[in-house]
Design a protein that fits this description.
Blueprint lengths: L1 H23 L4 E2 L12 H5 L3 E2 L5 E2 L4 E5 L5 E5 L1 H7 L4 E3 L6 E2 L4 E7 L2 E6 L4 E6 L2 H4 L3 H4 L8 E5 L2 H4 L6 H21 L8 H5 L14 H12 L3
Antiparallel strand pairs: 1-2, 3-4, 4-5, 5-11, 6-8, 7-10, 8-9, 10-11
Length: 231
């Protein structure tokens, strides 16, 4: 009974946030703070313009998103920030139905050629469904990460505790903006010979999405450690 009340409370909060945003007429996107960038760099204005964050969606520190239905089941995927910085996605490794996962442990992985990026579970739970269509066509991970590009569904086993580690609504938008600033600082700090667009970023140019795809394997690995391996 207590678990049901907790789930209903969380779902009620999410619904209330969605209603408030609708009443305000707020667009559900993240406006980046490009004007705060040092030396006038405008990368965030182009790479992260209108970053998507649907109403009522929770974000985890490892750049996974989570949504809850009234039954308390959690659907999980990769967020819009990650798909934009990574570039092309050639394949996906899904978890197994019935598998029990722990928050912070590997949940799924995406592939870009010979490169791999592992994403960690945002909460404890048991896998109850996976998006098998992504193995035939991973394109929705790029084009529609919050709907057709969902990865799996879980039955949470420790929701009351785990939900406190996630962010939603205004907190999620503020966190995403901080992550954008952190990523731009991370890219600019890399030696320019490690990526094809180094001179563009440093000169205040207009880089396209998929910056990591243009950078070396070492930078790819450092991004995984600094942005995806957190809990």
């Amino acid at each position: 009974m207590v678990a049901i009340l907790i789930i209903l409370t969380i779902v009620g909060f999410v619904v209330a946030d969605a209603l408030v945003q609708r009443a305000r007429g707020r667009k559900v996107i993240v406006r980046t703070q490009a004007e705060s960038q040092p030396t006038g760099r405008n990368a965030s204005r182009f790479v992260f313009e209108d970053l998507a964050l649907p109403q009522g969606v929770f974000l985890g520190a490892g750049h996974t998103w989570l949504s809850l239905n009234p039954a308390g089941e959690a659907r999980v995927g990769m967020d819009d920030f990650t798909q934009r910085v990574m570039g092309s996605i050639n394949g996906v490794e899904l978890p197994r139905i019935g598998e029990q996962v722990r928050r912070g442990q590997k949940l799924f992985a995406i592939y870009q050629g010979k490169r791999t990026a592992e994403f960690t579970a945002p909460l404890d739970g048991v896998i109850i469904n996976v998006n098998q269509m992504l193995q035939q066509n991973p394109e929705p991970l790029k084009s529609d990460p919050f709907e057709e590009g969902w990865i799996c569904s879980l039955s949470p086993t420790n929701l009351a505790k785990d939900i406190k580690q996630l962010v939603v609504a205004d907190d999620a938008r503020e966190w995403l903006n901080r992550e954008i600033q952190r990523f731009l600082a991370f890219v600019v700090a890399r030696p320019s010979e490690y990526f094809a667009l180094g001179h563009v970023l440093q000169d205040g140019g207009e880089p396209a999405n998929g910056l990591l795809e243009m950078m070396d394997d070492e930078t790819w690995g450092l991004f995984i450690q600094k942005f995806l391996k957190t809990v």
